Every structure is written in structure tokens, then in C-alpha cells.
Amino acid sequence: MLEVQNLTAGFLTAQGPLVAVDDVSFHVDVGETVCLVGESGSGKSVTSLAIMRLLEYDNGAIFGGRILLDGTDLVGLSQAAMRRIRGRHVAMVFQEPMTALNPVFPVGDQIAEAVMLHEGKGRAEAWARAVEMLRLVGIPEPEVRARQYPHQFSGGMRQRAMIAMALACRPRLLIADEPTTALDVTIQAQILELLRRLKAEMGMAILLITHDMGVAAEMADRIVVLYAGRVVEEGPVERIFERPAHPYTAGLLASVP
Ligand code: ADP
Ligand code: MG
Q1: pTM, entire model
Q2: b/e string for 55-80 if b means 16 or more Cβ within 10 A?
Q3: ipTM reported for the complex, 2 dp
């Protein structure tokens, strides 16, 4: 479903182009959970932003390669065309929910807005979807909560709301960039459980980005290991944990309790 081929991407700096992701290739099949792992600075976020074509908003650029989503190359699509792809085909959850939730609008309005934008639904139907999604992600009293503002939610509830917004248009692929890193351990486990449940119910594929091999062990069908902007190995989760082929992967595994 997603096929990243020889992606090279980075930033336009005063000193010239800075390559953060160097010739990266991997794929995500329908319904699969792939974990993109690697320590801080290895290029995970740049990869995810490139797939969403959001890198351009951060002085970044795709220097080369292809990003095929159901056979369509996203590289080179106009931002107008990308807006039709985001939401319905691929949606993203960020590490810090406040980067995606707007503090000045009620949470339900923001989810409804996404549904109206991506699916062209009317306000009433979009609002009903927003409430249904908040219920689905386990937010109590969703009719009441939908009228509240992000600051009235706890950190864990905000992350649930973010997931509700990302999944509101039932994308076939969800990209989650360190969705639990900002949360304490108990809430982290709840959010991972939620993602597993939603995946079972909705059947979307997940590209889960994490620096935590414990999270990867729990969630992944396959693991792609990034080091300094390059893929150093890739394989089924069992194989990676039993017989890591690259010393860098072995080092990452040594940090798992
Ligand atoms: P990760 O998500 O794996 O922690 P990133 O993808 O955020 O890593 O970063 C990869 C590399 O790109 C790092 O060297 C980082 O310093 C650099 N980088 C990230 N964002 C920017 C930016 N806005 N401008 C310049 N360099 C950046
Ligand atoms: Mg990151």
C-alpha cells in the first residue's frame, strides 16, 4: 500500500542542503503495523513528514525518490492534491497533540472540520461523526467533551482526541510519530492498547515511529531500523529480536529491559 523508494530528504540551510534521510526504502502492506525505529536524530520524523508532504512547511524538501501510496507517487503532487489525500488515505498523529489541536476551537469542532474538509459532509453529520469517534477512542461523555477546548483535556485524553481526529475519515494508513513519548507509562500502555483495538476494528495499516524497542516489540509486525538517515536493517519483529543482523540494532535491543 505504501512503498517508499530511495527517499532522500532534508533541509535547505544557509550552508546548503542538509540530507537527513538518505536513500531510504521500505514498504507497508495493507493492514500491517510497521515500526520505524532508531534513536533521536536518525531521521524518523523527517521520513514521516516527507510521506505526508508536510516537510516543505519546515524549510525541508524531498531531494529524490518516490513515495507510492496505492500506486500514486506523492512526490510531485501539488499541495492541493495532497490535501485530498491527507485524512482519507493517510493521516498522522504527532508526538505532541498540541501541534495538531488548535487551542481556540472545541475539540469536536476540529474533528468535524476535518470530516467536512475531507469528505464534504454537512455540519450535522460531521459533528455526529466527531462524537462517535471520541466515544470510539474511549473518551467518557463524548457529547460533553466534544464541546470542550483542548486545554480542558488531560495529556492522555488529548492524545486520544488526536487519534480520533486522525481516524475520523477512516484512512487506510495511519502514521503515528512517537504518539506515546510525551505520556507517562500507564497512559502510554492505554494508548498502545487503543491503537491495537482500533486497528482490529478499522483494519488500517499503521506506520508507528518510535525510539522505544519495547513499544516496537509490542506493536510491530515488521521493523525498519534507521541509523543516521539510512535503513540498516528490516525484517519481521521476531527475527529482529532473535537475530539482529546489524550491530546498531543489537545495541538498541540491549536497552530493552
Ligand atoms: P528523529 O525523528 O529520528 O529524532 P529527525 O527526523 O527529527 O530525527 O531529524 C533528522 C535530522 O534532521 C537531525 O539531524 C535533525 O537535527 C535534522 N533536522 C530536523 N528538523 C530540522 C529542521 N527543521 N532544520 C534543520 N535540520 C533539522
Ligand atoms: Mg522525531
Answers
A1: 0.94
A2: beeeebebbebebebeeeebbebeee
A3: 0.98
